[in-house]
UniProtKB/TrEMBL annotation:
The lineage of its organism: Eukaryota, Fungi, Dikarya, Ascomycota, Pezizomycotina. Residues 1-20, 132-174, 1393-1412 are annotated as: Disordered. Pfam families: Urb2. One of its GO terms (cellular component) is nucleolus. GO terms for biological process: ribosome biogenesis. This is Urb2/Npa2 family-domain-containing protein. Residues 1264-1491 form the Nucleolar 27S pre-rRNA processing Urb2/Npa2 C-terminal domain. It comes from the Eukaryota. It comes from Ampelomyces quisqualis (Powdery mildew agent).
Length: 1504
């Protein structure tokens, strides 16, 4: 690089010739820029100067700066190969910005305009951002971008003017520029122009503003292209940010779209565009980039973008919403209503979409078509294109939010427009509703339509039923395309039903607009489709029995190649909503009829083979019965239920008559119509019986129930019926009938019991003990045997209190228990029956013969041990809890005998596991002492001789040793503990859990022996124990893991017996920590030794000398084996092993005070909590540091508070605030006499509020809220009026749109904390609020607004933690949150006496003794009217979930009741409401009167 020679002061070199020759003298662009900057006397660091108006730029030669501006513009607009290089150079853009600031606007604006700056900007964006940025990685260092750009090029040498070029022009190196850095400098240069063009005319010259506007003003077509390329650049850079990560200021630069929007707003609108919206240019160029950018921003979470970027992210999303609304939706809406008005005069307008919107969606439609073609070809869809399908839901949601639908009337008027938008969007994804499709609908289109329907459902907007029916008929795969293979889209059908299920239940009417080929009964058609898929296709997988499990979403179901449809999807999202719709339509019998038709069709002979291959048809799933139970009684009258039961009972009787009249062949029987109807009735009757839960209805149905009981009794006893029907269904129905009839009739009728119940019990015993096929005619499978067993359980349970039935109960029960213990049932049925027996019928075991009962229980335990591993624990614990919780003493004795027998069965480990799991659920006091000691002896023998389950055996012994067992072997022989330890060491069973249980066993044993050491038996035990102990501790060998567990137990329990000296014990521990090169396989672990030292600390306090020596040795050992100072100062968090090692030392350092000061220990704890530790280790570290901080002086604690609150390192804040929370809990609730300390005390709460307003981390939020609650509730002396107002202020901020970006996943928890803290202030610090209760109003309004879901953009912005990035996944608060807000309002309106007693102590000295609660209500009532007004307004602009509203309204009634203390206040509030708000208030007042009775005062000043 040629050096720059400074010119002589006396003879300065002329600058103009040097400027004119710079292109000839230098070939490298960077060198040219450097020379130009030097010539016009820019400082060397001009590129890094932030303020372009600084004095360093005042000495620039302005006359030559204008020439430099022309030179820069010539470089940027050059169309040759040097043009892209210049436009990709960051330095030249920085120089342009600098020159624009130097020159006056009157000199710079004409040059910028003549050079067509907008064209330069467009070319720059095209050159650098139209291509893929995947190859550009962010720079790893902070070097200058121009240096990175030309890293591989050499500076050119200066040559003489006119000489031939010795160096060829450098190749364009635009590809080497960092895209983000280039974008920033381009934006800064453009901002220097727009800053003048948009300046305030009151403070700036309008002439300069207009001159700069001329620079930016261009045709609408070019402005749209610039906006498009700018949005594309931002979208790509944001995606690059998510991939590589970048600084927060770079994210802020990307998200600010104000500069490019100035160009768009200053565009020259086409003369043909009367609306001035440039809809065509915007949709052609900018629509798809805008939608893609909006989708990309939804994936930018606050932790990634930075706390400061959250607000800008929201603003950018709002800007994009306004762009789409202003230039697409608003013009399309105006055109739609204008065209609709014209068509309305011609009669009934045909259903139509928004034509202008459909035309404008052409670019998006092209992208979606491309995605569909790629899917059909099996190609991978790029992420940028795949996101286009989500734009459908976004556009529909935006159209709803942007509509002027503030009032119900306005929302009703907007429905045609919303429907037109939906139709146009459906056409955009290739799903026209005007004609049947010719091709199979793509999966992307299905997902888009489903999300659009979900948006409509979330906004509670219904559209024309004809539109939905056409969507179902044309695009759900039920009919079209006719010439191609179809696939039914069940999730799309489910979305349709969720939006409006009435289209399937409304009675068919003649409609000329409906296609003739559409079926009249859509429900019957849909149910037939389900049946066809169940029998003919691959079928549906089993329903999820647990209704709490998450549903598979549409994307996961539809985006697979050939998904196996989930039965739960069909039942829960299709059939169940249809049942509810029939119920709402008061036509539940219509569903019952259609269900019956499907059951009858399923029993066709053609479906017999399919039914045999399937476990259960979908129409017989128990999920249907569960759904029916919730609606049955409230939808049907008693007469309707009686007729329904009678009809199905008659069908069963008809089938019996047909079967009794002739003996048809097997095939002919299954073809008979009565057979199919009877089989369907066999399914419906038990469903109806389970749905009847009212005692009054049961009494009214007594004749029908008796008839059914008799009919089914004959059915299970006659082999002719059982040959063609499922016996399990018949026994199920009999169980239900007996449950209904027993309380009303059968319990008091011995005749009925003998004539009906006894024969059935005999038949049930035969079926329970029968094999799978008793004879050629009777089929008894495992499910049938299980249900027959259940019938016997139920019958025995009811007959056990009937005199004279003891023998029958005993015989039946013996049969059942025998078969339950045998392998008569399959695994699934056996598990279910054992659980049912343990939960409901275990008390029946007391009726067994005492001699037989232990054997029966043992056989049951033996059978349980053969079950799967995941079932054994649950079943065995259930059996133990049931017997010990409900059984008698004899049953307890039989059970303990069975457990003892099970433990004595040799090497049967599975049986041992069952017995031990059962023992762990037994309280020792529930067993006799002899039985406990016998079991303890068995376990001792097993542990010392046979391989057993060590952890469970030790845990059972520990539990049994909770009470004395003086005659047990472990309490009489001091060598047993050591023998068990030796066997554990031999088997290498030395896990941490095993060692803990061994230590506990030794402790509990010594706890029963040492207090009675003077007795002969105890002396004998301790003598043998001492011998074994001396053998263990003699010599210099290291202690084993099991030996250390015994020694730790001795130290903790020996008290004054001195079995082991502390000095000797410490020596053993020191020896274990010393590395002498010996084999450490059988030596106690490092962790156990440190834990032993920690346990020693209290024992050493009595011996200062020993404590001092031990502390010194530990300090030396830690210094030699760990560098904790280096760990504290390290930048990286380290590995899990390092963090775990330090965590073990942390407790030792704190216990023995091995730290220089408390600040050092806090720093170590903070670093430790930031490491990769598990939650339990972190809790232990917090407990340890709290124990150290508690005894400190108040001044030291306040110093630590300042240290922990002044943390600039964001990753360290969660750990620091967690320690701060515990430190605040240790502060004394006493004001300091020192003024400085008192000031620090009072500053804690405001400081916490300041930190809370800035944090976006969930851990920090909870820690700070805990600290605030602790001060409010327990440290009243640390509060003041100012601090209470600070708390109110930060809580209000957290409920406003400016709230910090807390995680939305914790929205319900955040709202809970806000309500709890607000209520706490009212309970404890209401006196500090005084007469300024109005400061609560904004907080209460904010919390109330959080419960609503806004229906439009005009409704106001929710806090960031309640905002959803996806329209189809809104964040809703729960009914529990509504109840918490109600509780807060209740505390406000009806305060307890304790919260206001201090305020009203002075009233006792007055002559008038007023009720303080009444006085508090009086003061509160004056500021509640704005809250009621807000509720009315929120009702118009948002919606409450029904469950949330139910919980909220009791609190609102409290507010209304308190506010109604002053009639004039209510009247004034009513007068200030708008018309729509008055309508809402009338409804609220009417509902209030219906709950609390009619009031004398009226709702408003006028009659309503």
């Amino acid at each position: 690089m040629a050096p720059i020679s400074p010119a002589s002061a006396k003879h300065p070199a002329p600058t103009r010739p040097r400027l004119q020759s710079v292109n000839q003298d230098f070939s490298d662009l960077n060198e040219q820029i450097r020379q130009v900057a030097h010539i016009i006397r820019l400082p060397d660091d001009w590129a890094s100067v932030k303020d372009q108006k600084t004095s360093a730029l005042q000495h620039v030669v302005r006359a030559r700066a204008e020439w430099v501006l022309r030179w820069i513009l010539d470089k940027l607009k050059d169309d040759s190969s040097t043009g892209p290089e210049a436009r990709a150079n960051t330095t030249i853009w920085q120089l342009l910005e600098c020159v624009i600031h130097i020159l006056p606007v009157s000199r710079s604006a004409p040059h910028l305009r003549d050079a067509s700056f907008t064209t330069i900007l467009e070319n720059t964006l095209v050159d650098n951002y139209e291509k893929d940025l995947a190859g550009h990685e962010p720079p790893s260092t902070g070097s200058d971008s121009s240096e990175m750009l030309h890293d591989g090029t050499k500076p050119s040498r200066k040559r003489k003017r006119g000489s031939p070029g010795t160096s060829s022009p450098t190749k364009p190196t635009a590809g080497l520029a960092d895209p983000a850095s280039l974008f920033c400098v381009i934006k800064n240069a453009l901002q220097s122009i727009t800053g003048v063009a948009t300046a305030n005319t009151k403070t700036h010259d309008t002439t300069q503003t207009e001159l700069m506007k001329m620079v930016l003003r261009t045709e609408s077509a070019q402005a749209s292209r610039i906006l498009r390329f700018w949005l594309v650049a931002v979208q790509k850079l944001v995606a690059r940010t998510l991939t590589y990560g970048t600084a927060a200021q770079d994210v802020n630069t990307l998200l600010d779209l104000s500069v490019v929007l100035e160009i768009w707003d200053l565009r020259i609108v086409d003369s043909a565009d009367h609306a001035g919206s440039s809809t065509e240019d915007f949709s052609n160029e900018c629509l798809v980039p805008t939608l893609q950018l909006a989708e990309s921003l939804r994936h930018v979470h606050p932790p990634q973008a930075g706390v400061q970027s959250t607000k800008l992210l929201d603003i950018t999303m709002q800007v994009l919403d306004k762009l789409v609304s202003r230039h697409l939706l608003v013009p399309s809406r105006a055109a739609f209503f204008a065209a609709r008005h014209d068509e309305a005069e011609k009669g009934n307008p045909v259903r139509r979409g928004a034509s202008m919107l459909s035309n404008s969606l052409g670019p998006l439609q092209a992208v979606l078509l491309q995605v569909a073609q790629m899917e059909d070809a099996g190609e991978d869809v790029p992420t940028q294109l795949a996101s286009a399908s989500k734009a459908i839901a976004y556009l529909l949601d935006l159209a709803i939010r942007a509509s002027p639908s503030k009032t119900p009337k306005a929302r009703l008027a907007e429905r045609p427009w919303i429907q037109a938008v939906f139709i146009s969007l459906a056409e955009c994804v290739g799903c026209s509703l005007e004609a049947p499709p010719e091709f199979v609908i793509s999966r992307v289109a299905v997902v888009a339509l489903e999300s659009a329907l979900e948006v409509l459902q979330l906004h509670k907007i219904t559209i024309d039923s004809t539109t939905l029916k056409d969507l179902f008929w044309y695009h759900c795969g039920v009919k079209y395309p006719e010439s191609r293979k179809k696939e039914v889209h069940w999730s799309l059908i489910a979305a349709l039903i969720k939006l409006d299920a009435s289209i399937f239940v409304t009675e068919p009417r003649s409609n000329p607009n409906v296609a003739k080929e559409q079926p009249k009964d859509l429900t019957e058609f849909l149910f037939s489709l389900i049946s066809k898929a169940d029998f003919d296709g691959e079928g549906f997988v089993d329903a999820q029995e647990d209704s709490d499990q998450d549903m598979p979403d549409a994307d996961s179901v539809l985006l697979k190649a050939k998904p196996a449809e989930c039965r739960y999807l069909i039942l829960a999202r299709i059939v169940t909503p249809i049942i509810s719709a029939f119920s709402k339509n008061r036509n539940l019998l219509g569903f019952m009829r259609r269900w019956d038709d499907q059951l009858v069709n399923s029993y066709k002979y053609t479906n017999r083979k399919a039914m045999r291959e399937k476990t259960q048809p979908i129409w017989e799933d128990r999920f249907l019965t569960s759904s029916l139970m919730e609606l049955f009684e409230q939808s049907l009258t008693q007469d309707q239920i009686a007729i329904l039961l009678q009809d199905h009972a008659s069908r069963v009787e008809v089938w019996g008559a047909v079967l009794a009249a002739e003996e048809p062949e097997d095939v002919k029987v299954q073809k008979l119509a009565p057979y199919k109807k009877a089989c369907a009735s066999a399914v419906i009757i038990p469903a109806v019986l389970q749905s009847i839960r009212s005692d009054e209805i049961v009494v009214g149905l007594k004749p029908q129930l008796h008839s059914l009981f008799v009919s089914y009794t004959e059915r299970v006893q006659d082999d002719r019926y059982t040959s063609y029907t499922r016996l399990g269904l018949s026994w199920t129905t009999l169980c239900l009938l007996m449950a209904k009839l027993w309380p009303i009739d059968m319990h008091a009728s011995l005749k009925l019991q003998q004539s009906l119940l006894y024969p059935l019990m005999e038949q049930a015993q035969k079926d329970v003990s029968a094999s799978c096929k008793v004879s050629a005619g009777r089929q008894v499978d495992s499910p049938a045997r299980a249900v027959a067993m259940l019938f016997l359980f139920d019958a025995c349970d009811r007959l056990q209190t009937v005199p004279g039935s003891e023998e029958r109960v005993r015989d039946s029960l013996q049969q059942v228990v025998t078969n339950l213990s045998a392998s008569q049932l399959d695994a699934q049925e056996h598990r279910a029956m054992v659980e049912i027996f343990c939960a409901n019928f275990v008390q029946l075991l007391s009726h067994l013969d005492p001699k037989v009962s232990p054997d029966s229980i043992y056989a049951m335990l033996k059978r349980i041990s053969s079950l799967d591993d995941d079932v054994i624990d649950h079943v065995s614990s259930s059996l133990s809890e049931a017997i010990l919780g409900q059984g008698s003493y004899s049953l307890h004795s039989a059970y303990s005998s069975a457990l003892s027998e099970a433990l004595g069965q040799g090497d049967d480990l599975r049986l041992h596991h069952v017995a031990l799991q059962s023992l762990l659920n037994v309280q020792p006091s529930e067993l006799s002492r002899e039985r406990r000691e016998a079991i303890l002896d068995q376990l001792s023998t097993l542990l010392t001789t046979n391989p057993v389950i060590d952890i469970e055996s030790l845990a059972a012994m520990v539990q049994l040793m909770e009470v004395p067992n003086a005659s047990a072997k472990i309490s009489t022989d001091g060598a047993v503990i050591f023998d068990i330890a030796a066997q554990l060491q031999k088997r290498q069973s030395m896990s941490r859990s095993v060692l803990q249980q061994l230590q506990l066993l030794c402790q509990k044993t010594l706890a029963h022996i040492i207090p009675y050491q003077s007795q002969a038996q105890s002396r004998a035990f301790l003598g043998e124990f001492q011998k074994k102990l001396n053998t263990l501790t003699q010599g210099n060998k290291k202690i084993s893991a099991t030996g250390l567990a015994i020694l730790r137990a001795i130290i903790l329990e020996q008290k004054d017996s001195q079995l082991l000296s502390v000095k000797h014990y410490i020596g053993l521990l020191k020896h274990c920590l010393m590395d002498d090169g010996a084999d450490t396989t059988d030596v106690a672990s490092f962790e156990d030794v440190l834990e032993a030292f920690n346990e020693l600390s209290p024992a050493l306090l009595g011996d200062p000398t020993q404590l001092k020596a031990t502390t010194a040795w530990l300090r030396t050992w830690i210094n030699e084996n760990a560098d904790l100072n280096a760990y504290i100062t390290s930048i990286q968090s380290g590995s899990f092993e390092v963090a775990e090692y330090v965590a073990r030392l942390h407790k030792l350092v704190a216990k023995y005070k091995l730290y220089p000061d408390a600040n050092w220990l806090v720093a170590l704890t903070t670093k430790l909590l930031r490491g990769p530790l598990d939650a339990e280790s972190k809790r232990s570290a917090l407990i340890t540091i709290t124990g150290v901080l508690t005894p400190l002086e108040t001044a030291d604690k306040l110093g630590l508070v300042e240290l922990l609150t002044d943390v600039e390192d964001v990753p360290a804040q969660p750990a620091s605030y967690s320690i701060l929370r515990d430190l605040i809990a240790t502060l004394p609730d006493k004001p300091s006499n020192d003024t400085a300390l008192r000031s620090k005390q009072l500053s804690i709460l405001p400081r916490l509020c300041t930190l809370l307003a800035q944090t976006s981390d969930a851990i920090c939020f909870n820690a700070l809220m805990d600290g605030i609650d602790t001060i409010l509730n327990h440290k009243a002396s640390l509060t003041s009026q100012h601090s209470i107002e600070c708390v109110f202020g930060v809580l209000t901020k957290l409920t406003s749109r400016t709230s910090p970006a807390l995680p939305a996943a914790n929205a319900s928890h955040i709202f809970t904390r806000l309500c709890e803290t607000s209520r706490l202030m009212l309970l404890v610090h209401r006196n500090k609020v005084g007469g300024r209760s109005h400061i609560l109003l904004t907080l209460l309004q904010g919390l109330l607004f959080c419960l609503f879901m806004p229906t439009s953009a005009r409704s106001g912005a929710l806090p960031s933690w309640l905002r959803s990035n996806t329209p189809t996944e809104p964040i809703c608060l729960t009914p529990t949150n509504g109840a918490q807000y109600t509780r807060l309002l209740g505390t406000l309106c009806n305060p307890p006496q304790s919260s206001i007693s201090k305020t009203h102590q002075h009233s006792r000295k007055s002559k008038d003794l007023n009720d303080p609660v009444k006085a508090a209500r009086e003061r509160t009532s004056h500021f509640l009217y704005p809250l009621l007004t807000s509720f009315c307004r929120f009702q118009l602009t948002g919606r409450l979930q029904p469950a949330v509203r139910t919980k909220l309204m009791p609190g609102l009634w409290e507010v209304v009741g308190t506010a109604s203390l002053h009639r004039e206040g209510l009247d004034a509030m009513f007068a200030g409401l708008s018309r729509s708000e008055k309508d809402v208030w009338r409804s609220v007042w009417g509902e209030y009167e219906s709950v609390h009775g009619r009031k004398e005062r009226f709702v408003g000043g006028e009659d309503i």
